[in-house]
Amino acid sequence: MNAPLRRVGVVVMVLFGLLFANLNWVQAYKADEYRTSDYNGRVQVADYKRKRGNIEAGGTALATSKETTGQLKFQRTYPGGAKYAHVLGYKPVNLSDTGVERVENDFLAGTSDQLIGDRFKDMFTGDQTAGGNVLLTLSKRAQDTAYDLLRTNQVDAKRGAAIAIDPRTGAVQALVSMPSFDPNPLVSHATREAAAAYAKLEQDPDGPLKNRALSETLPPGSTFKIVVAAAALENGITKTTQIPAGSSFTPPTSGSPIRNAAPSICPEPQVSLLEAVTESCNTGFAQLGIRLGANTLKEKARQFGFEQDDLTVGQLGEDGLPTAASRTGSMQNADGTDDPAALAQSSIGQRDVRMTPLQGAMIAGSVANGGSQMRPYLVRQLLAPDRTTSYYTAKPRELRQPITGPVASDLRDMMVSVVQKGTGKNAAIGGYTVGGKTGTAQSAPERPDHGWFIGFALDKNGTPVSAVCVELEQAGPGGSAEAARIGGQIMRAAIADPGGR
After folding, report:
1. What secondary structure does DSSP assign to 325-351, as a single string?
2. Which is it for strands 133-136 and 55-57: parallel, antiparallel or unpaired?
């Protein structure tokens, strides 16, 4: 054989070797990925051949499947439309699934290992095993109230969020992000139409696909003063201790004075810690933060849940909806010493402090629950397709204990004073003890301020029944008062709906 033919032979053998290696790579390593790909038509037909289970709350079906006449046998539908979109998510044909539809996909689809007995039984009956049913913790009244009041808020805020939890268990009673979206077009079997609907939502500058309750962080303003007050109570300061205040305070190293929201707020040289919380005294808390120091504040915030990167909200201890970590940001100089100006601003919830609405509700819930912070969860129960067997029932568990019982008691008194005498009066509920803290946070130059409210409700026996956080983005004047009004109404609705608690 001459040299040219040998070279051709070698090239052919190399090519066959590469082809053989690629074939083995596809069969051995990529087969499962290709088999389960959303773009595999046969897999799609198989997925939609089985009726997907319901997602329900309080006896109401929030996500169901109806039979169709097309190649894909069942169509996913969301009767509540936009009201539950950021909780449920959606299960589209070609797009990526989100929300509870994603985290509980195997159980809803009927392919979970938990349902192997049901599939085995159906082999003998000839039935097509349906998916299992997921029952959520949501209170329908609280969810509807949160959605309706956010959309019709009285300060014309276009973006915001609200979340309510049961302080005793961590069960999520309501979770709404504004603006929302209708998931029904996204699950259309006409995939081009579904893709166009998704593209329109994705390009919307108001970000309707964002879950602001869990994954968006903003400066929390004066709601962060509850964290600072907790640190103060643990470091020798009591409710009645007099702290420096005044109409204006300029931190050392900074030429920018910190003032109160109005001249009538704590103009005295000194006020008690209780009065500083009730009146939301910026000058008092700025000086208090400097006194406590950066390490003390950052550690107390961490104990409440700031800086946690791995918290999810779904089943307890399992995968769930992702959350963003709340952050305290930098309060120190490059050499590690405290930066008084940064500390002063951070102590009133400004500068680099960022918080999710979920974190705000967890802070309020911890105070209401005697210092115990429960792990938040959304999935209450997993039921078999025939609803006769429960494969999972949530058993609430403590996440952490950021404060002691006595500190929690003092913070409760101060937050109750805010609602009775201070800026949180709009949150009051007849027959219940309500505590809270409003917050107004600067967003950016030439933009309106954000409005916040965190709070809780106790029944006549002192038992906590709901904790809430409402955030109205760029709400402007009156934003925090409106957030308090909405927060009070959400808790009122949760109280009136025992099935959601």
Report:
1. PPB----B-TTS-B-HHHHHHHTTT-T
2. parallel
Q: How many residues does the chain have?
A: 501
Residue pair 243/289 in contact (Cβ under 8 Å)? The answer is no
Beta strand pairing call for 320-322 and 133-136: unpaired
Distance CA 83, CA 64 (A): 15
Strand ranges inside 338-445, DSSP E: 373-374, 379-383, 390-393, 398-400, 433-441
Catalytic residue IDs: 222
Question: Who's near 319: CB < 8 A, 6+ residues apart?
Answer: 103, 312
Whether the ω angle into residue 445 lies within 30 degrees of 0, i.e. cis, is no
| Tokens linked to 411 | 């913070």
Query: pLDDT of the chain along its 501 residues, tens only?
Result: 566 666 766 666 767 766 766 656 655 555 455 545 555 444 566 677 889 999 999 999 999 999 888 788 899 999 999 999 999 999 999 888 999 999 999 999 998 888 777 766 666 565 667 899 999 999 999 999 999 999 999 999 999 999 999 999 999 999 999 999 999 999 999 999 999 999 999 999 999 999 999 999 999 999 999 999 999 999 999 999 999 999 999 998 877 899 999 999 999 999 999 999 999 999 999 999 999 999 999 999 999 999 999 999 999 877 899 999 999 999 999 999 999 999 999 999 999 999 999 999 999 999 999 999 999 999 999 999 989 999 999 999 999 999 999 999 999 999 999 999 999 999 999 999 999 999 999 988 889 999 999 999 999 999 999 999 999 999 999 999 999 999 999 999 999 986 544
Structure tokens at 22: 């690629």
> Do residues 292 and 225 touch, judged by C-beta distance below 8 A?
no
Fold for the domain defined by 215-380+400-500 = Beta-lactamase (3.40.710)
Annotated domain spans of the chain? 215-380+400-500
| Structure tokens that stand for 149 in this block | 């009041």
Long-range contacts of 96-101 (CB under 8 A, 24+ apart): 96/38, 99/321, 100/55, 100/63, 100/134, 100/136, 100/314, 100/321, 100/378, 100/379, 101/55, 101/63
The pTM assigned to this predicted structure is 0.90
- CA dihedral 272→274→279→281, nearest 10 degrees, is 50
